Amino acid sequence: MTPTAGSRDAALKAAGAVALAGMLAVFLTGCGASGARVDGARDAGRAFEQALASRNYGTACDLLAPETRAQLEEDEKQACAKALEGQELPVSGAVNGAEVYGRQALVRADGETLFLSQFTGGWRVVAAGCTPLEDKPYRCVVKGG
Amino acid sequence: MSGSRQGGQEHGSFWRDNSLTLAFGTAFLLVLLGQALAGHADFNAQLTDDGLQRISLGEYMTSSDFAVDVTENWQSEFLQFFLFIFGTVWLVQRGSPESKELHKIGSESDHEQRMGDHAGKDSPRWAGTKDWRQLVYSRSLGLVMGGLFVLSWLAQSITGVAAYDEQQLRQLQDPIGWGAYLASPDFWNRTLQNWQSELLAVAAMVILSVYLRQRGSPESKPVGTAHTSTGVEG
Question: Membrane-spanning residues where (chain B) (predicted)?
Answer without folding.
Answer: 140-164, 195-212
